[in-house]
Amino acid sequence: MKIRTRLSLTFIAVVLPVLLLLLVTIYLYVDRSKQDDFLIKLRNRGITMAQLLVEKRVIREPLLRQIDRKTQTAYSDRRVAIFDSQNRLLYDSGELDNRTGTNSPISIDAHLLNQIDSEREVRFSNGRRVGLGLLVEQPGQRLKVISYAIDDYGIRRMKEAVAVMGFMLGIAVLLVVVLSRLFASRSVRPITGMIRQINQITPSNIDVRLTTPSHTDELAQLAHTFNLLLDRLSAFELQRSFIANASHELRTPLSVLTNQIEVALMKPRPALEYEQLLTSMQEDIRRLNSLSNGLLELTQLDNRQAGPGGDVIALDEVLYEAVGLVIRKQPTYRITLGESTASTDESNDGSNEALPDVMLNGDSSLLKTAFINLIDNGCKFSDSHQVHLKVVVFDTLVQVAISDQGIGIAADELDYIMQPFYRAANARAIKGNGIGLSLTARIIQLHGGTLTVNSQLGCGTTITVSLPRMQSPGR
Q: Do 239 and 360 fall into the same domain?
């Protein structure tokens, strides 16, 4: 059984008994009120007849009986009997308006009269007939009056009330069923949304996370816990992929070195060939050393906590040093510095320089490594070996955009370029190991920043680094 169905049944099971209890309470209250009102009328009728009987000078008994008989009421089998203190009958109207003629008059015995004498008022019933006996004290007399009848009007009204309540109960049941479905649907809607999001998570997009509600109920905790589970699974998958790729990348230069050594040992060779062989082996060893250093740096960064902090550093100095190191290593590379624009009204002390003075919290050596990787990649994957670097300063952050007109990246590969050892299809022929960009992304993340990539295949790539800037003391 689905949760929606169980919630609907639970809602119905809770609301319907409450509704039935409410209707029964209303019915009992109305019925009790009807009975009390009817007894008040019987009491008033009995007292009135007793008073008229005592005042014989005004109305004599035959006339009183005739008036009683011709009086139109909504009752049937109505009767008033009056006794004196010695239980002698003074007046008996008989059962008037006996429409069926099947009911025998209620027997009035000495026990009932004595009970009236002791309790002053006694209520009784016989089938549908309801009545009371009461003690009426008149000047010099103690009369025992018995008045009863059938409340035809009240019975009819109660039947109508039961019919109306039954109809309203049917409408209420339908409303409860509809509301239970709405309640259940609304209750499971977050679960349905979570299921829909979970179904969209596949091995190719395991980085997708569930949307966490703003409130902190159990469903929000469930979504948060599931996201933590995905984080752990992603870490396991990343570790597995990392080990596989690292093993492959390390095995390739080692295999080349082994083959070169085996070929060299097959037979004696001239010194020139040995020199060429050693030069090639030296290049492979450098590549292996670079790969090992990259793996070590990436592992060290993975163990650090993300967030801004550290020393106060000048971003322009970090960028100048990164540009200088890249050009010193590759003299054929060209890096142009564009004009920077700021969204604040602050004056820039370094207006004569191409880059503004911007202060950050962080690690200058790590940021230098990140920008060296970005600049080197832009030049390396561009035929002109040229990139354009631009700094834009905002109120709370600074953006560094590095643009090239190189080979570009396909749109379907942009989601994977941050993964270690991943290389785009059009970049595999160019020297590299696929660690630099993932290392850079981790460095930027550690500094509380973001890294975005905009690229068009065959037209070039622009990588934008956004970092939180330090606020000046007066702001």
A: no
- Count of domains in the chain? 3
Whether residue 185 lies inside any domain: the answer is no
pLDDT in tens, 90-128: 888 877 766 655 566 778 888 889 898 888 899 988 888
* Tens digits of residue pLDDT in 41-81: 889 888 888 887 777 655 566 666 666 666 666 677 888 88
Residues 6 or more apart whose Cβ sits within 8 Å of residue 34: 151, 154, 157, 158
- On whether both 239 and 335 belong to a single domain, the answer is no
SS3 category, 97 = coil
- What are the C-alpha distances in Å from 412 to residues 224, 403, 422, 425? 29, 20, 13, 11
With tokens 């009817």, the residue in question is 38
What 3-state DSSP class applies to 467?
A: strand
* 385 phi and psi angles, rounded to 5 deg: 50, 45
Cβ-based burial of 116 (10 A; exposed 0-12, middle 13-18, buried ≥19): buried
Cβ burial of 271 (10 Å; 0-12, 13-18, 19+) is: exposed
Question: Is 188 a domain residue?
Answer: no
**E strands of 97-140, at which residues?**
121-126, 129-138
Range of the domain at 388: 311-344+353-468
Decide: residue 410, CB within 10 A, 0-12 exposed, 13-18 middle, 19+ buried: middle
**pTM check: above 0.85:** no
- The domain spanning residue 130 has which CATH number? 3.30.450
CATH (domain of 247) = 1.10.287.130
Residues 419 and 460 in one domain: yes
Tokens 């690292």 found at: 246
* Residue 302 structure tokens: 């993975």
Q: Are 11 and 176 in contact (CB under 8 A)?
A: yes
Residues 20 and 121 in one domain: yes
